[in-house]
Write a structure and sequence with these properties.
The chain is about 35% helix and about 20% strand. By secondary structure, it is an alpha/beta fold. It has a single domain, classed as Spore Coat Polysaccharide Biosynthesis Protein SpsA, Chain A (Alpha-Beta Complex). Strand 1, helix 2 and strand 2 form a beta-alpha-beta unit. The N and C termini lie far apart (about 120 Å). The relative contact order is 0.12.
Length: about 325
């Protein structure tokens, strides 16, 4: 025996095989519970991250209905086919003859409101969406339809263009072209309604780039533009906080042009993104494009827009033509 080490004889503790097995099982169970607890904490953490991501990446689709419930069928069909289903539709129903809007395969919130104009309906829906934590918005007409990647492309564009108003490439829906006799059957569905926009300040008209042209890829470049139509206009919470609600002095038309002008004054970019694609049944809330009702609302809104933003010479010109 090595020097300095004293041998002490101790009785050995005798254990039975059953006792050893139970002790080992208890120890293994304890380790298993510890691992489960650690896994649960990890899962909760990643679940929280997923929830936060979904909230951040959730799209609030804002729209207004006024008696034209029949156009909702194609609109809802398009939404039901979306690849990216992380969205909620907010509908401000301003109708004088209200119908029940049937439940769809996606979250829908309907708010019945007094008809104080399109901008008022948009504002009510936007307020509800922000109260529910919305951070990405797409204000859109109900008289449109689109492909299954629409929501996906809107989110991609919002992610790529911060502090921006964003519009997409919009075609006339087949059969809704303004100059119906110009086009052959093969052209229908490929006639442009909007591919960017400008404002003619001599007359205070908003103009659509590419309108009435057959699309041959001539407007496939993403770029900054001068005007975005309210048929489809996308933005995030930072833009909404900077610009505030839409101007409710416009009952119908030019509320989108007003929002664009306010955006420019607040250094918010206007971006045309041709990867966002939809088809529009033009002017379905005012008896069709070129109707007397359509022209009356448009002329009145043009006057308000001119008095608010146009040069003095144009203000006088528009006033003279109005009366």
């Amino acid at each position: 025996m090595p020097h300095g080490i004293v041998a002490i004889n101790r009785p050995e503790v005798q254990t039975t095989p059953t006792f050893d097995t139970k002790m080992r099982a208890a120890w293994e169970k304890d380790e298993e519970l510890k691992q489960t607890a650690e896994d649960d904490e990890g899962n909760k953490f990643f679940m929280l991250l997923d929830i936060l991501y979904c909230m951040k990446n959730h799209l609030s689709i804002i729209t207004v209905v006024y008696n034209n419930y029949d156009v909702l069928e194609d609109f809802f069909k398009s939404l039901n086919k979306q690849i990216d289903t992380n969205f909620t539709v907010y509908i401000a129903d301003t109708s004088s003859r209200r119908h029940t809007i049937q439940k769809q395969g996606f979250p829908t919130k309907v708010m019945c409101v007094e008809n104080k104009g399109y901008a008022h309906g948009v504002n009510v829906a936007l307020q509800k969406a922000t109260e529910n934590g919305g951070e990405q918005f797409c204000v859109i007409n109900t008289d449109v339809f689109f492909k299954e990647n629409f929501v996906e492309k809107v989110k991609e564009s919002l992610g790529a263009h911060t502090r921006s108003l964003i519009g997409g490439k919009i075609y006339y829906a087949p059969g809704y072209e303004y100059h119906t006799d110009r086009y052959g059957d093969n052209d229908r569905g490929n006639v442009l309604w909007y591919a960017g926009g400008t404002v003619d300040w001599k007359n205070t008209w908003t103009q659509h780039v590419g309108v009435d042209e057959v699309d041959h890829g001539q407007y496939d470049e993403k770029k900054e533009t001068g005007f975005i139509t309210g048929c489809c206009i996308c933005f995030d919470k930072t833009v909404y906080e900077a610009l505030g609600p839409w101007d409710e002095h416009y009952f119908l038309y030019y509320e989108d042009a007003d929002y664009c002008q306010r955006a420019k004054k607040n250094n918010v970019r206007l971006v045309y993104d041709p990867h966002i694609v939809l088809w529009h049944k033009n002017a379905q809330s005012t008896e069709g494009s070129g109707s007397k009702l359509h022209m009356r609302y448009q002329k009145k809104a043009q006057l308000r827009f001119a008095l608010k933003f146009a040069p003095w010479r144009t203000k006088l010109h528009v006033l003279k033509n109005y009366f």
